[in-house]
From TrEMBL:
Coiled coil: none annotated. NCBIfam families: trp_arylform (TIGR03035). GO terms for molecular function: arylformamidase activity. The gene is kynB. Its EC number is 3.5.1.9. This is Kynurenine formamidase. SUPFAM superfamilies: Putative cyclase. The keyword Metal-binding applies. Pathway: Amino-acid degradation; L-tryptophan degradation via kynurenine pathway; L-kynurenine from L-tryptophan: step 2/2. It comes from Kroppenstedtia sanguinis.
Length: 208
């Protein structure tokens, strides 16, 4: 056992996607039988498939693209909090938690229970939380949810507030059964030069 816990959704046919977005597919362009030497695959997917990060360009024309994001955001020490079934994720919900010295924060809500389907409703992040987290020194916020805003939001107030306060976003982590505490995080995006988001392979390793 390596000690790494995979907190990524598996990229399989039928993985739930944002309503109307591009379905995930993997297929062989050439089979070994056809080519005589190798299997070669191709993938089609939305940049917001499964466990993924948002680049600010997702919701801001002038925002950073994936390639511009600091790798340090996605590798290093992270704190996992358990906030079971919150109405929203706001200052009140986090007030009793000690966030001293935390730069990366993952919140387990356990609200996306049926992972075979896209959820109908999710607890949103309160935009007021952004300055609060910035003050604590947090630069990455990750959730076990497909968005930080209500699913029908067009203004995306939490996405904008977080970005305006220097906080980057990781969505769709699988935190079922992950105990609260401190871990090592690895969740690097792909080196997509122009993209608005990227799937990540996200993993945690417990720190003693
Ligand atoms: N894929 C989409 C298609 C259409 C409209 C929104 C989305 C999103 O991805 C929004 C969500 N806040 C996200 O960052 O994952
Ligand atoms: Zn996204
Ligand atoms: Zn998002």
């Amino acid at each position: 056992m390596s000690g790494w816990i995979d907190i990524s959704q598996r990229l399989v046919k039928g993985i739930p996607i944002w309503p109307g977005d591009t379905p995930f597919s993997y297929q062989l362009s050439w089979s070994k039988e056809e080519s005589g030497s190798v299997n070669v695959g191709q993938i089609t997917l939305s940049t917001h498939t499964g466990t993924h990060i948002d680049a600010p360009f997702h919701f801001d024309e002038e925002g950073k693209r994936v390639i511009d994001l600091d790798l340090d955001l996605y590798i290093g020490r992270v704190r996992v909090l358990h906030l079971p079934d919150p109405i929203q994720i706001g200052i009140e919900e986090l007030q009793s938690k000690n966030l001293k010295g935390v730069t990366r924060l993952l919140i387990r809500t356990d609200t996306w229970i049926d992972r075979s389907a896209f959820p109908h409703a999710i607890p949103p992040v309160a935009p007021e939380l952004a300055p609060y987290l910035q003050e604590k020194g947090i630069r990455l916020l990750g959730l076990d949810l497909p968005s930080v805003d209500p699913l029908d939001s067009k203004e995306l107030p939490a996405h904008h507030a977080l970005t305006d306060h220097g906080i980057h976003i990781l969505e769709g982590a699988v935190l079922d059964g992950v105990d609260p505490g401190d871990y090592q995080l690895a969740a690097l995006p792909l080196p997509l030069a122009e993209a608005d988001g990227s799937p990540v392979r996200a993993a945690l390793k417990r720190l003693e």
